[in-house]
Amino acid sequence: MKRPEFELIDWIRSQVRDREPVLLGIGDDAACLRPAVDRELLVAIDMLMEGVHFTFPDATPELAGRKALAVNLSDIAAMAGEPTAVFVSVALPNDRGVEFARRVHAGLIELADEFGIVVAGGDTNSWNGPLVISVTVTGQQIGPRPILRSGAMPGDWLFVTGKLGGSLGSKHHLTFTPRLAEARALVNMVELHAMMDISDGLAADLHHVLNASRVGALLEAEEIPLTEWARAARDGHSPLRHGLSDGEDFELLFAVSPDQGKQLVSQWTETTPITKIGEINRSEGCKIRYADGRIEPLDPIGWTHSIGEGIASD
Question: What pLDDT is stored for residue 313 in this prediction?
Answer without folding.
Answer: 37
